[in-house]
Every structure is written in C-alpha cells, then in structure tokens.
Amino acid sequence: MFSPSVIFLELTDACDYSCRHCRASATLSPSPDTMGHEKFEWLARDIRRTFGTGMAVVITGGNFLMADSFESVIGACRHEGLRVAVSPPASRLLEPALNTLVSLGVSSLSLSLDGGRPATHDWLRNMKGSFTSTLRYIELAKDAGMRVQVNTVVHGGNVAELPLVLQVLREKGVDVWEVFFLIRTGRGTGVPQISMEEYLDTVLWLSEVGRPLVRTVEGPLYRAVKANRDAFRRMAGKTYRHLRETSAALGIEIGPSPGQVGTHPHGGTLFISHSGDVYPSGLARVRLGSVMEEDLGTVVSRSEMYLPPEVSSHLRGRCASCRFRYLCGGSRARALTETGDYFGEDPLCPVVL
Ligand code: SF4
C-alpha cells in the first residue's frame, strides 16, 4: 500500500493572515464542520495503526495556533510515536507558543519567506511587517533548538529575488528550503504565474544551491533536472543567467551538491483537512474519502491510482510518453487546477518531446 513521506493535518481553516495565494481561502472564523479534538486524537492512533510509528506529521492550518485542540493533538501524535513538525504563519500567536511546542516534542518548524525584499513578501502575505516578523521568528525558533525550514512560493513577481531569499536563509542558518511552485487555486488565481522558461531556469538554479537542503513542491521537474543537469543546462535561458549572476554579485557560492534531496514523484504526501477529507496534497484537491466515514487505510487502499507509484500508469498528454515520467511525472495539482484533469500533462512543463 502507498505510504506517504509526510501527512499534513489541517487543524483549522481559520487564520489571522489573509495571504493572496491561500489555497484554503482562510478567514478569521473556523468552518463549523471542523473536527473536534477527540476525532483528531483518534486520527493520530489511526495514522500509527496504518503507517506505523515514526510517520512524519505536519500540523498545519489556517493558523493551527488558533485551534483550541493543538496541544492535545500534538500530544496524541507524540504519544503514538509520530514525528511532529508544525507550519504556522508568522503570527503574533507564535512567540508565546514556541516553548510549549518544544516541550510537546515538536522538533521542526516551517515558516514562509516569499521574497528577498520586505515589500515582495508582505504583498503576497497581505500583511505589512510580515517580512520582519518572519526573520525574527526564524531566529527565535533556532534559539529554541528547533530545526527550521523556510517555504517560498515562486511566482511571476518574486522569481528574480530568489538569490536574495537564499542569502537570508544562509545568514540565518536555515536547515531546509522548500520551494513551492505556485498553484492557482483558492485565493491564488490572481497571483502571476511564472513562464515555462522561468520554471526550467529556476529548477536548474535550485539544483546548484547545495545549502540549505532544497526540496521542491509542485516542481517535480527538479528531480529530472538533478539527474540530467548537463542536458538541461543546454536549455538554460535568461532567468537562469540572472539567478547565477545575482548570486555571484551577492557573494553566494553555488554548485551541485550530492547531499540535496528532491521531491517525491507526484508529492508522496497525504493531506487531511479540518473536516476530515483526505487529498493527495493540500493543493491537489481530488477528494479520496473522509476519515469521518472510514479509517485512513481504507481510504488510501481504495485510492492507489491517485497516489505514487500507481499514478504514473494513468498519466495523459505529454507526461504519458515522457522519458522523465517516473522521475518527474508533472505536477498533478497544476494539471488539475489549470486543465481540470488530474492525470493530464503539467501545463508549466518546458520539455518538448
Ligand atoms: S512532460 Fe511531464 S513528466 Fe515529462 S518532464 Fe514534463 S512534466 Fe515531467
């Protein structure tokens, strides 16, 4: 049976941020169908029964710190032997909660930084001062002994600033850089998308970053590029040159590193919403079932065709006949959002067959 690399648990769809690209279109009020803490605690046991101890769980939202259940759910996950990371916005609720999170056994925290300049980040997050808060919370989390991951959504308005983001991450000693390629869903339909050429140039440059550890989300071409760098470098365009030149001007050393990791094909994740709906990821909104009606193992075993590795056998369009289909396979979330076909080709892919 498919076993995810990580399971995202959305404790609430309420949030004190109102980001322009929010997949959940989160508002200040939680939806009335939000599961209670007993159901989330049952789910922690169900995850352990289905996938065993050691499964990685990311507690997310909305802003999960707005859910009354967060301490009991994290406690239940830890009790079941699950590894717990958290993904809050850079909210004022975070600072007073940091020590509680550490004492509950949370060892890893991710924050978003979506631009190298305050105005760029604050625009996407729709919150003045968010850039400054984010840098402060990165420092506080590092001081608290947590492993810190930074997430960056790449879009048409910030792709040129990625070397500036990288400079900040290196200065702050960030451990992992998770680079998301925009999926225009929820409130994100108005955010500018990058071009095919910018997609290729960005993953090519990311394949040379080396430090911090880079992972991509909805950027599966990264795996194909890492495995075939010389061939893809011959296709490099002006954005790649800009990213290289800007990195050099900032004094950032880059170069291939064997220590990097790529994404899992098609995500390799599961996402369980605040109301118990199960999806392949938070961005690929194909509802596989609900833990309000069935246990997780039943939902997953009935849904194998939507999940790795079986999804590779159902691809359509260019992805179906592409030599990189097992390394890359295209973004299922982008295919679904842009074409309505979960198994269709990735519309951002620059590869000509
Ligand atoms: S055609 Fe599909 S599988 Fe091939 S490189 Fe493009 S996105 Fe990846």
UniProtKB/TrEMBL annotation:
Residues 1-212 form the Radical SAM core domain. It holds the Pfam family Radical_SAM. The keyword Magnesium does not apply. InterPro entries: Aldolase_TIM, Elp3/MiaA/NifB-like_rSAM, PqqE-like, Radical_SAM_PqqE_MftC-like, rSAM, rSAM_sf. SUPFAM superfamilies: Radical SAM enzymes. PROSITE patterns: RADICAL_SAM. GO terms for molecular function: 4 iron, 4 sulfur cluster binding; catalytic activity; metal ion binding. Keywords: 4Fe-4S, Iron, Iron-sulfur, Metal-binding, S-adenosyl-L-methionine. SMART domains: Elp3. Its cofactor is [4Fe-4S] cluster. This is Radical SAM protein. It comes from Thermogymnomonas acidicola. The lineage of its organism: Archaea, Methanobacteriati, Thermoplasmatota, Thermoplasmata, Thermoplasmatales.
